[in-house]
Design goal:
By secondary structure, the protein is an alpha+beta fold. Helices cover 41% and strands 12% of the residues. The strands form three sheets. Strands 1-2-3-5-4 form a five-stranded antiparallel beta sheet, covered by helices on one side. A two-stranded antiparallel sheet has the order 6-9. Bound molecules: adenosine-5'-triphosphate (ATP) and magnesium ion (MG).
Length: 281
Amino acid sequence: MSSRHRAPLESRVYVLAAGEASDVELMPAGDVTDGVVRVGGTIRRPHQPQSLAVAAYLDWLEDAGFDGSPRFLGRDAEGRDVLTFLPGQCAGPVPEAWVRAEELLVSVAQLLRRLHGASAGFLPDGHPFPPRPVRQDPADLVCHLDVTPQNVVVRDGRAAGIVDFDLAGPTTAFKDSFNTAMHWVPLRDPADGWPGWEDADPFRRLRIFADAYGWDAGERRRLPAFGIEATALSYERMEHNARVLGGGWARMWDEGVGGMIRRRGAWLEANAGRLLDALSR
Ligand SMILES: Nc1ncnc2c1ncn2[C@@H]1O[C@H](COP(=O)(O)OP(=O)(O)OP(=O)(O)O)[C@@H](O)[C@H]1O
Ligand SMILES: [Mg+2]
């Protein structure tokens, strides 16, 4: 769909065309948003306060020629957001062994770099993103900020798409790329490691990510301290969301996500030298 044919975001309505597939499948549940379903070639998600800001960003990405994000098609008769379904495979809640492939890690970093290139110039004017909890990030670019294995669509062993733009908003490319590396390396205390990932080498994987994304020397030097600070802020935000928003946030908090984030921070501090070494060798 080209921008010429798109209705304004507020009045964009999606109606199934005659003969269009309408079989329904419940999608794997994430942590926060309940009730994500596929209907034929579309995804239906509950409408959220940030939905139109996200939709404007998705329109921008489409116009910029980025092919790795869903299109916002409008809202259906039930008021749900309708997005294009990106065919492929996403990781489950505990990422499977296939998610470890280094070629996949490389392609995630490259896809993220392309997303950042395509995002340049986008200004959320008509539909601002909601403010970040606790305090704002320094910001010069709208990015995704939740590029987890569950939110990347994989085809033929390579990252082909990124879904679930619920946390998108103004930040920096470095923050989004740190966050993505954190999820995909992953950067966490080995005590919190996923089954089947025990012998994955986080230092080697971080270097692979850095080379494929293209962090410069300055970014590599900043990485450990930046990660420690980002982890401390993410603890505060999780705690805030659990208290103020409840729902899935409170569930995650009760399940101990705060302790996991604290252990990540301690692991980053204890391994700052090794991380720097791996990035600069
Ligand atoms: N546009 C899409 N194309 C293909 N698959 C999708 C798409 N959107 C979502 N999915 C699939 O549905 C799953 C859940 O959807 P999504 O990530 O949007 O919500 P969620 O993770 O439940 O939300 P949250 O992260 O806010 O809790 C994804 O992990 C992915 O497997
Ligand atoms: Mg998700």
